[in-house]
Design a protein that fits this description.
single chain; 420 residues; 3 domains; three-stranded mixed β-sheet; 12 strands; 18% strand; ATP-binding; magnesium; P-loop_NTPase
Length: 420
């Protein structure tokens, strides 16, 4: 009876409003079934409903095997298949003697013809089970089981903002499978230990932030030349905290409103600096908690001072050229040379230390040199010799380029003086 009633109500959408209202009142008088709709997005909120996500997870675990139209995706590092009911399908569930019907559907496209209409789930049940559904089935049984399924199947993701205005979704994602950790991160050990301690303190200070009236967030500014490990640092942080990553490409954001949606979903006519700063430490930063916000730049001196002033970013972390301490980590990662073997087993370590003091070379170049040699199954000694050759060449190239750089810098200064 419930499926028939629901189908009949859908057909009423094609009948004039005056007629449908009378028909609905007639059927409602005799209809003993109630409906509860769970929308993917609410009119008052930008972000996807947690309630909807929990219901979706519950149905995938408890009811999907009884559906006729299914959709599937891999989870848990491709080791498990998650199956859920597809749009315009229905399944039956039971709870403490009550029979319930779940329907999956999509809302009608709006005037802007969204490419992906918002979805919804509709629960139909006998009105005699109202208290059971409202007080036990939904808040305890469905939500608790849904949360458990989400945690069990959770696999961290890398999100990128979608530039299209025609989609109801503003983030796309792929599985996050970067293996970087703080143990393998090529960074000065003391600096690395300080960052880990800061992250651990942040994770344990939720109540402290609430007591002083501050949103629970932490900001880091990573700056340095390309190849110094900024991306690896972010990946290591995500793995350390078990966080998802949201990669926000600001050049594709067309308005402050769109930027607001992006920040709220993570937890005017153009994007302005004031709009960005509002999300970093203004009122909108309180929309959603437990966030790590990371800014990266290759040129610190080109950033607007308002963005990097003290207090806006909690830590400024310089990602520098390769030092001898960083090289030792790379030697362990790629050549498996342990600390006690360094200068006793490989006399080239002394030469490498000397060259690193004189040469600007990034950890990425050092890592690629060691890896390429290792792929050819060369010995550790040959790999280190190859690195010495690479560094000597970089030193020579820098000596040749230095006069040209100084000449360009002089021209730039003259041009600035003329403008003044």
């Amino acid at each position: 009876m419930a499926p028939v009633a629901a189908r009949w109500l859908e057909l009423l959408g094609y009948v004039p409003a005056v007629v449908t209202n009378r028909i609905k009142k007639f059927f409602q008088y005799f209809d003993k079934y109630l409906q509860i709709t769970i929308n993917e997005y609410s009119a008052e909120s930008f972000h996807r409903s947690d309630f909807f996500k929990n219901v979706e997870a519950y149905l995938s675990d408890a009811c999907a095997s009884r559906g006729r139209k299914l959709k599937a995706e891999l989870c848990m590092d491709f080791k498990k298949l998650q199956v859920n009911i597809d749009d315009n399908d229905e399944v039956t569930d039971s709870f403490e003697g009550a029979t319930l019907w779940w329907y999956a559907g999509t809302k009608e496209r709006g005037p802007r013809d969204m490419t992906e209409p918002p979805r919804y789930f509709r629960l139909v049940f006998d009105q005699c089970h109202r208290d059971l559904v409202v007080n036990s089935y939904l808040p305890k049984h469905v939500l608790d089981r849904g949360r458990a399924v989400i945690l069990e199947n959770r696999r961290r993701r890398l999100f990128t903002n979608i530039s299209s205005n025609n989609s109801s979704k503003i983030w796309s994602h792929v599985p996050f499978e970067h293996t970087a950790t703080f143990e393998t991160l090529a960074m000065d050990p003391l600096k690395k230990a300080a960052i880990k301690a800061d992250l651990e303190a942040f994770m344990e200070s939720k109540d402290d932030y609430a007591k002083v009236g501050k949103p629970w967030k932490r900001g880091y500014l990573l700056y340095g030349p390309p190849g110094t490990g900024k991306s690896s640092m972010i990946a290591a942080t995500a793995n350390f905290l078990d966080y998802d990553i949201y990669d926000l490409e600001l050049t594709t954001v067309k308005s402050n409103i769109q930027l607001r949606r992006l920040f709220i979903e993570t937890t005017a006519n153009k994007v302005t600096l004031s709009g960005l700063l509002n999300f970093i430490d203004g009122l909108w930063s309180a929309c959603g908690g437990e966030r790590i916000i990371v800014f990266t730049t290759n040129h610190l001196n080109k950033l607007d001072p308002a963005l990097i002033r003290p207090g806006r970013m909690d830590m400024h972390i310089e990602m520098s050229y390769c030092t001898f301490e960083v090289f030792k980590i790379l030697a362990k990662n790629y050549l498996h040379i342990e600390e006690h073997e360094h200068e006793h087993e490989h006399e080239l370590f002394g030469e490498i230390r000397h060259l690193l003091d004189e040469t600007k070379i990034t950890p990425a170049v050092v890592a690629e040199t060691l890896m390429s040699k290792k792929r050819k199954r060369e010995s550790n000694g040959d790999c280190l010799t190859g690195l010495v050759e690479t560094m000597n060449k970089a030193k020579q190239d820098a000596a040749v380029a230095k006069p040209k750089e100084e000449q360009e810098e002089t021209k730039a200064k003259r041009w600035q003086r003329r403008r003044k």
